[in-house]
Structure formats: C-alpha cells, structure tokens
Amino acid sequence: MTISQRTSLVTAQVADRLGADRVETDPAALVKLSSDWSRMSPILQEKVPSGRYVADAIVRPRTEQEVADVLAMAYEHDVPVVPRGAGTGNYGQATPFTGGIILDLRGLDAIEVLADGDVRAGAGARMTKIDKVAREAGRDLWIFPSTKGSTIGGFIGGGSAGTGTIEHGTTSDGFVTELTVAPMDGSGRLLTVRGEETLPYIHAYGVTGVVTSVVVRTDPARDWVAVYAAFDSWDAMVAVHRRLLDLPVLPRLASGDEPALVPTLTTNVDLDPAQHSLRVIAEASTVAAIESLVVAAGGSVRACLEDYAATDLLSGMSYNHPVYFLQRAHRDRSWFHMETGGELYWTDADRVREVYDGPVWLHLELMGRGPLAMVVAEYVSEEQVLAGIPRFDEIGVGVHSPHQWYVDRNLELVTEVARERDPKGLLNQGKLTDHALVDTRVNIGVR
Ligand SMILES: Cc1cc2nc3c(=O)[nH]c(=O)nc-3n(C[C@H](O)[C@H](O)[C@H](O)COP(=O)(O)OP(=O)(O)OC[C@H]3O[C@@H](n4cnc5c(N)ncnc54)[C@H](O)[C@@H]3O)c2cc1C
C-alpha cells in the first residue's frame, strides 16, 4: 500500500473516533499547510517550492490526548506525520517530504499563568496571546520571536531567538522548564520532561516527538519603552549598540539597519532613509542613559514611545523581518540572507561586506553578549551563497545557513532520543539525516 492509501486508513479511524471535522483533504488547504516561509530563501524556493511536497491529509486534534491517539493510529499504519503551528518557519522544516499527515496543532491553545508566574500553554497558542495574558498578570515572557503571531509549539520546535534574547539567550537556554510530548512509539501516551531533559525537543523540528504543551519562564513585568535613534555612520551606530550591555537593566531588543534597508521597514515613526537606524526596547529608567550614549556618538533620538504596543511594533522590525521587508519592497530582484555573528560587526564590519561581491547590507541585533547580523545581498546562484561560508569562517564570523532544512542543534542528542521516541522514523521525515551529520551547513538536497 502507498503512503496515501495508508493515510486514508488512518484518517478514516480519526474521523470515526474523534469526528469527521478533524480531517481535511481539500487540495488547496493541503498545499497551503504543506509549505512555510522557506520562500525567503531563493535556494529553498527552488528545491522545496510550495506544491512540490504535499501531505495527504490535515488532522486537527483538540486535546493533548488526541494528539497521542492520532500518533498511535499513524504508527500502526506506518504513516508519516509532520507537526505544524502557524507555518512561519524559515527552512522548509514544516514541509512533508513524504506525504502523510500534517498535524495542525492550533486547536491546542489554552493558556494559564501558574502560581509562580510562569506560563503553561498549549502547543498551538499564539505568542501574541501568551504575551498578552502574561502582561495582564504582571509578567514578561523571557523571549518571543519577531513573528509574534506564531505558536509556542512552533517557536520551541523550530525557532530560536528574539525579543528578550539579550538577557535570556535562545529557546535552549532555560526558557522552557517543562514540556509534555507525544512520542511516535505506538504507545498512545503523553510524557512530561523537565529542565535539561527538554533539550532534545527544542529546535528539533518535531523529530523527537510532538510537543503538546509547554511551561515557559517569565519575569516580573517591566516598563518597556521603544527608543528610535539615527546615526550618520555604521561606526557611530555600533558605538552605542555595544555600550547597551553596560546598562543597569539590559534592553529587551536592540536592532540596527543600514540606510538601504531603512525605507523598507514597517513603522509609524518618521525614519530618515539617509541614516542608520538603531531601535531599542529599553527599560524606562535606562532611557536617559541611552539618550546620552546616542548624543555622545553624534546621533539623534528620533522617537521615544512609551506604550507597550509601540515596543511590539519595534519587535516586528527585528531578526529576519527586515530581510522580508526588503524582499517585499523589491520583488523585481531576488535576495538572500545569511545568519551570522561576531565581534567584527562592532570593530570592522567592512570585512564582512567583502564576503560577497556587489552591495551587501547588514541588519544588526544584539544576542547575548555580542552582535548578530543578517547579511543580505542580491542572489545570483546557490554556489555564490555557499561560497561565503568558508569566507565567514576565515574572518572569524560565525555563520548559520538558512538555506537548509536539516536539524542542526544538539544533533547527536536529538538523533539518540529520536531513535527511542520515533523508532520507525515517521516524524517529519527527511529533517534528521546522516547527511546532516557530515556538515549541517552546506549540504542541501532532499534524499
Ligand atoms: C519574517 C520572519 C521573521 C522571523 N523571525 C524570527 C525570530 O525573530 N526568531 C525566531 O526564532 N524565528 C523567527 N522566524 C521563524 C519562525 O517564524 C519562528 O521560529 C516561529 O516561532 C515558528 O512558529 P510556527 O508556529 O510558525 O512554527 P511552524 O513553522 O509551524 O513550525 C516550525 C517547526 O517546528 C515544528 N513544530 C511545530 N509545532 C510543533 C510541536 N507542537 N511539536 C514539535 N514540533 C513542532 C514544525 O514541524 C517545524 O519543523 C521568523 C520567520 C519569518 C518568516
């Protein structure tokens, strides 16, 4: 029997046990939910374009136990399953390479603030909603991504960093205290892991099990303010950027852009397109110190907005969003980006600009104790993009290619746990491969 035929057996069982409305096979919906935002990469756009790899059915569980039940049915018939949140991942990691079932988890959206202030949420709860509930309870989520409409399950399953990362690191750095997971082992059970044991499920694209609910860390809510500053040069901008780490309360976000990227940003603040733009989500008591730093570097403060919604707008211009804004503004040309990081952005950014021929534009973030940058340039070919990787290595700049779909964090641990939790290898097939063990950054190609 083909995967498609086996999927029909499973969906018939699901319809019978959970209700016919839990299954969808409409062709347009299948194509839509089988792709994600990998279209941001011209390389992935070519290799995993929307419509090339399509699931046979979408299944929509509403409770955590239903997730476990669906996985048990899929296990019995050897049907591949790909968990999916809002589908905003960048790497094609929610695309079902071998058909089967897309598990749409958006129905699991309960949110509860616990007695200690941390938040328990269903995997399908949106980060926007979780943040709102947390703030109403006087708490700040440790981190959330610039795509705030995404789900917590997807952020933990496939995301990494965002607002809050300067102080709290990535999704693997203590943000997650507890996960409930449905394994693909035929048991139909749910298991709960805590602390370090959560690591094999974070940024693992669901290959170690489907996360059904999470507990994430919060802090007492702070008074956050959106500060916009402008500078004549990159050097003046980074002179302030690096000093933000000396503030008594670390900023929640610190994003910078070169003039070429500034006009494409979505903002209600009057940004000067001829100047470098630095945007900081700062704790209110540190604003005066930031203003002094800006003036001392020869810059100017263009706006200081005091309501929380204004800081959200600023989050929406962080991490990969400026790359998307550029692509949206100049659709007549094709753009690619590389995710990079290193002190060179503060000391000699021109050396990074030399990695690629032609104009190279930089979007800057502060991640932990150092700078992170999206390097953006016009796309010519896959060879051109990949040729940059050894050059970044040579100049001591860390690089992660957003043009591949393999699991590339904690790979050995993830592989080991996946063997136990998914012995038949049915979860998100093609994302955990020996290929990735060779070199996760440069190997691109569906096996
Ligand atoms: C313009 C743009 C900007 C972005 N900015 C950021 C950013 O600032 N920081 C960042 O980290 N990411 C960013 N991303 C990537 C992505 O949007 C986020 O990581 C987002 O949180 C993913 O959530 P999602 O619900 O859309 O997940 P999906 O795309 O649906 O899934 C992501 C991965 O997780 C798996 N998965 C989904 N749900 C579960 C589950 N319950 N259990 C196990 N596995 C699961 C999927 O199979 C897939 O492999 C950006 C993307 C875009 C397009």
From TrEMBL:
One of its GO terms (biological process) is lactate catabolic process. Residues 51-221 form the FAD-binding PCMH-type domain. It comes from the Bacteria. Pfam families: FAD_binding_4. Transmembrane segments: none annotated. One of its GO terms (molecular function) is D-lactate dehydrogenase (NAD+) activity. PROSITE patterns: FAD_PCMH. InterPro entries: FAD-bd_PCMH, FAD-bd_PCMH-like_sf, FAD-bd_PCMH_sub2, Oxid_FAD_bind_N. Coiled coil: none annotated. PANTHER family: D-2-HYDROXYGLUTARATE DEHYDROGENASE (PTHR11748:SF119), D-LACTATE DEHYDROGENASE (PTHR11748). This is Dehydrogenase. It comes from Nocardioides luteus.
